[in-house]
Every structure is written in C-alpha cells, then in structure tokens.
Specification:
Elements lengths: L2 E6 L9 E6 L8 H10 L2 H6 L10 E5 L7 E6 L10 H18 L4 E4 L11 H15 L5 E6 L2 H14 L1
Helix pairs in contact: 3-4, 4-5
The structure holds adenosine-5'-diphosphate.
Length: 167
C-alpha cells in the first residue's frame, strides 16, 4: 500500500519517476507550473511535445523528463473553470485518472502532481483539492508514493485539512 505525501515546494525539484504537468491543450508550454517544467527540463521537452499534436482537456500524454530529476513528464490538460456546470469536476477527475493510467503503463512507481486547474484555470481550490485527493486515495495501492506538490503554504494547509477530512 503506497503513501500519499503532501509536500510544499517546486515540483521541478522532486526526485520521483514522474511529475505531472498542468499543461494547456497545445502542449507547447505556457505559464505557471507548465513554464517552470519546460524551463527546468530544457528545450528538448518542447521538441518532444510538438509531434504529440496537443491533448484534449481531461486526457494525458507522456514524454521523457530530459534535464529533470524525474524520468518522465505526464502532461495533462485541466479544465478551465466556467462555473461548474460544463463538466469541470468530471474533467478534472479524468486528468488524475488518465495520468495514473499512463503511469501504470510505464511502470512508474512514484509520481508527483501539482494542483491541476487551481491556478490561472480558476477551479475553486477546495473543490479541486477534494477531487485531487480522492483520486489519489483511489490509486495509491498501485504506487509506492504519490506526492501532492503544493506551491504555497496556504495550498499546503488546504490539502492537509482536506485529506484529514477524507480519511
Ligand atoms: P492551471 O492552468 O492548470 O490552473 P497553473 O500552472 O496556473 O495551472 O497552476 C496550477 C497550480 O500549480 C497552482 O496551484 C500554482 O500555484 C502551482 N504552481 C506553479 N508553479 C509551480 C511549481 N513550480 N511547482 C509546483 N506547483 C506550482
């Protein structure tokens, strides 16, 4: 049975088999965590993403991690929040499920996620944390460690309170 760890910090620094990128549908880089991952991985990441031809919302694609400590980057496209009645919760859950499925196919044992859609895509943070942590709880038997990587102290506190309420 694997562990779920809530960690505060920069996901690009983590020594795990795979980190997940909150990408946009072009897969050609962007701001936020996406920009940080491309900067840390180096230009070969963009070269690897280009032939993938983008990725629909809720799905995921995998590339090597290049200069990252992580061997793999799983790129998933979270939903933009439009009020909640356009399938946003289901699409966010699908991001986690598709990321875990790709990880299993590639024998990945340790994986770290950022708070997908919780930045410029404006998914309400509390609701996003519930979906993230429920998805991790559903998958944790398949992995040695799943890290929820929070960037800010307030996000870390929110994740901690959320997981305490779920388990
Ligand atoms: P989205 O477009 O899916 O909302 P963002 O990159 O804007 O993606 O934000 C997703 C989350 O990633 C936010 O909570 C943001 O604070 C966080 N974040 C930004 N940079 C990093 C980083 N280097 N490591 C981990 N999390 C990060």
């Amino acid at each position: 049975m694997g562990e779920i760890q809530i960690v505060q910090g920069d996901i690009t620094r983590l020594e795990v088999d795979a980190i997940v990128n909150a990408a946009n549908s072009s897969l050609l880089g962007g701001g936020g965590v996406d920009g940080a991952i491309h900067r840390a991985a180096g230009p070969a990441l963009l070269t690897a993403c280009r032939p993938l031809g983008g990725c629909p919302t809720g799905e995921a694609r995998i590339t090597p991690g290049f200069r990252l400590k992580a061997s793999w980057v799983i790129h998933t496209v979270g939903p933009v929040w439009h009020g909640g009645d356009q399938g946003e919760p289901e699409l966010l859950q699908a991001c986690y499920e598709h990321s875990f499925a790709l990880a299993l196919e590639n024998s990945i044992k340790s994986i770290a996620f950022p708070a997908i859609s919780s930045g410029v895509y404006h998914f309400p943070k509390q609701a996003a944390a519930v979906i993230a942590l429920e998805s991790m709880l559903a998958a944790h038997n398949d992995f040695e460690i799943i890290i929820a990587c929070c960037f800010s102290a307030s996000d870390t506190a929110l994740y901690q309170a959320t997981i305490n309420a779920l388990v």
